[in-house]
Amino acid sequence: MAYQTLIVENNDRVALIRLNRPEALNALSGELISELAAAVTAADADPAIRCIVLTGSEKAFAAGADIKEMAAKSYVDVLTGDLFGPEIERINRVRKPIIAAVAGYALGGGCELAMMCDFIICAENAKFGQPEINLGVIAGIGGTQRLTRFVGKSKAMDMNLTGRFMDAAEAERSGLVSRVVPVDKLVDEAMAAARKIASKSAVATMVAKEAVNRSYETTLREGLLYERRAFHALFATEDQKEGMSAFAEKREAQFRDR
Ligand code: HXC
Known about the structure:
Layout: E1 6-11, E2 14-19, H1 30-45, E3 51-55, E4 60-62, H2 67-70, H3 75-81, H4 85-92, E5 98-102, E6 105-107, H5 109-116, E7 119-123, E8 127-129, H6 146-151, H7 153-162, E9 165-167, H8 168-173, E10 179-181, H9 186-198, H10 202-214, H11 220-233, H12 238-248
Parallel strand pairs: 2-3, 3-5, 4-6, 5-7, 6-8, 7-10
Antiparallel strand pairs: 1-2, 8-9
Helix pairs in contact: 1-4
The chain binds hexanoyl-coenzyme A.
């Protein structure tokens, strides 16, 4: 499918989705967010794809929701239109892993979009922030909730109340990102991680993603029980037999997603 605001390449079992509105630092317009929801949903449904990488440009992952598009909207417009709500739901329903590869600005909705992914690899020039307070509003798609769970209350309050940016070193120190790499290595590093994920059993991968995400939704006791039952259930798969036999036979496992 041809997109106006994205470049999508399917590359060796990985869908690489690049946000592409350079004139607006990849600000999330209605068109971009709806194309993104369509692109990740299509990748999720495509049996040839096993992992998704979402990236922007070297200057900006995304500088937030499109302020010029939002500016004139009324309360009733955003309430009844549920600004971004349905698209975000579709992105959150994707069952294949999504890696955010962030260079440059990831601000407002851009930071929130990165946090919706399963993990974030960032470049040394990355800058994360929730500067909505400067616009007389607050974060609207996770900046007060997901950021707090990533970096704790003190830093989340600091970023949401002052609007200050967090650089790559602080983001790694605070647990917002899993790794920091040089800008020119960012996409290669994210693609290598995605290919590594693509080489595993897709059944175990899907269950692992669900189990980690469950930790955000439930108590520790319930989460541990969920994990244990999911672990037990994987013994019903051929991939468990293959993975454990391959270990004993000192060879690479050949997973068949069964
Ligand atoms: C619309 C944007 C934009 C945005 C940048 N641009 N961010 N357009 N929405 N969020 C446009 C600029 O208007 C400009 O267009 C071009 O991109 C380049 O930006 P500059 O500001 O000239 O670049 P620079 O001086 O390098 O500054 C970069 C920046 C700054 C620090 C990232 O652009 C900035 O502060 N952007 C806004 C960040 C922000 O507040 N994000 C939160 C949005 S609210 P022209 O045409 O002038 O060249 C949000 C809510 C989410 O995200 C909740 C949704 C439900």
